[in-house]
Amino acid sequence: LESKPNDGSQLMKSEGASGSPADWTVSDVVSYFTAAGFPEQAAAFRTQEIDGKSLLLMQRNDVLTGLSIRLGPALKIYERHVKVLQKTHFEDEDC
To answer: Which residues contact residue 40 at a Cβ distance below 8 angstroms, ignoring those fewer than 6 apart?
Structure first.
């Protein structure tokens, strides 16, 4: 029971992972997707050693097939998170 509050606060903290996604470690990426509601799928990012730089380079097909996760969650992860992070990151860089 004691670990639950710690887990919760850690998730809240990690959802706003520090700085630019390009600086995220593999653990930051895993924490981000765990906090976003994809704890099972987050493990795939750790297995494949996806850090922030790798995440920003991922294409749709990488997420759908390269991570070996179910199609439904993979689509949500790509459309709602990976694509959004990439768009935000690369738009910020252009400014």
So the answer is: 69, 73
